[in-house]
Structures are given as C-alpha cells and as structure tokens.
Amino acid sequence: MNMKKYIITLFAFALLNSSFGQNTVVIPKANDSRVITTGVPFMLIAPDARSAALGDMGVATSVDAFSQQYNPAKYVFSEAKSGVSLSYTPYLSKLVNDISISYATYFNRLSEYSAVSGSFKYFSLGEITLTQGEDDPGINVKPNEFTADVAYNL
To answer: Quick check: 27 pLDDT over 80?
Structure first.
C-alpha cells in the first residue's frame, strides 16, 4: 500500500511540475534575420586574468588596477595613490586567431575618501564574411566594439 502512494505521489508531482522553456518564434523567410539579439555581450567578458580565473568574481576580490570592470568603488580603499593597467587577451584562440580584447584602466585617489577612475575596452571580432544567400560570395568586414567609462567614488 505504501508503494502505491509513493508512485501516485511521484506521478502527480511530475504531472503538476511541468515546466516550459522558451517559445519558438517563426520568422518569415522574407525577414530572415540571424542577428544576435543580446546587447553588448562582450562587456560580460573578464578583461583580466585574475577575475577570469576566479569565475568572474571580481566584486569579492581585493582592490587592484582592474577593479573598474566590477566595482570601481574599491579604488577608495587602495593602498596605492594611483594605478594603471593594460591587458590584451586573444579571445577564443583555439577556434580563430583574430579575435581579441584590449583593456586599459587608470585610477587616482584624490583624498582619503574619494577616487576617480576610467577605462577603455576594445573588442575586435576579427574578419567576418557577410553573405545574402548561398550564391552570394559575400563581403569581408572587420567589426569591433568598444566601451569607455569614468567613475567618481566618494
């Protein structure tokens, strides 16, 4: 009798706990679009080796010159008065050889309680061939993305 209750409970739980994922949207052939719909996804890529090695855990680390990516408020607690960082990362190098991320930051503590900082990140997507169909030879483009940001911390 106990086994029967167990099976009925398991079946009811499985039936009531069904989940649904994303819905598929059918795009008509005339408007066939393969555009990535995420906004600026390269900003999620860690520009420095320390944060990348820690699984993008830059918020919970001590202050360093790369803190602009995750938490620029940490610069107020820096022991150094100012700092500069530069990094270059060949991205997805096992797949292609022309995608890279370059990153530069600067920070300066103005007083014991304030700091100013800025950074510039450049993401080169390499060479991409754009085509309109199977018979189109396409054109080669070299797209890139970049961000520049400034922070004042008090």
So the answer is: no
